[in-house]
Amino acid sequence: MSDARTSNDAWEALLSAHAVLTKRFGEEDLWRQVSMREYDVLYTLAKCHEPVRLSELNRHVLLSQPALSRLVQRLCRRGVIASGSDAADGRGVRVSLTEPGRDLQRQIGMQHARSVARAMTAALSREEIRELEAICVKLARDGASDMKGRQG
């Protein structure tokens, strides 16, 4: 089998696994207060130690810039995200979690983490999970550095 065929088969398997698991997680009874997409934004902001620009947030979520802007506006209106001007660039906006947003993210995150652990350990050994993590980290790192090379 050619490298191209093997690579494409691996890519399709990765996408299929992602789709199946995302659908399974989406059907769980923990998405009453926020959608999975909203949670993704809350989770990403929870990992940030300071307010971030929307463009930076957009690098870490699977949404278009306009869709992310609308979602952030909705979450701001709900009081789970705070938005303010970027002191370094008045045209820019920085966003961060509010305390209620941080509490909501933790509450849902604990439940979601248990679901993820159940799904992963049901299908994979501890060694396979570590190997999968290493592979995905490598792909993400190499893909990000490749993107920077093309932009620069």
Describe this structure in words.
This protein has a 3-stranded antiparallel β-sheet. The chain has a single domain, classed as Winged helix-like DNA-binding domain superfamily/Winged helix DNA-binding domain (Arc Repressor Mutant, subunit A, Orthogonal Bundle), CATH 1.10.10.10. It is mostly helical. The relative contact order is 0.10. The two termini are 35 Å apart.
Q: What is the residue-mean pLDDT, rounded to a whole number?
A: 91
Kindly provide the name of the CATH class. Answer: Mainly Alpha
How many domains? The number is 1
Unreliable sequence segments? none
Largest sheet report: 3 strands, antiparallel
Radius of gyration: 18 Å
- Note the gap between the termini: 35 Å
Architecture (CATH level 2) name: Orthogonal Bundle
Secondary-structure blueprint of this entry?
Layout: H1 3-26, H2 36-46, E1 52-53, H3 54-58, H4 65-77, E2 81-86, E3 89-97, H5 99-123, H6 126-151
Antiparallel strand pairs: 1-3, 2-3
Helix pairs in contact: 2-5
Keywords:
152 residues; mainly alpha; Arc Repressor Mutant, subunit A; three-stranded antiparallel sheet; 6 helices; 3 strands; globular
Quick take:
With 152 residues, the protein is mainly α. Helices cover 68% and strands 11% of the residues.
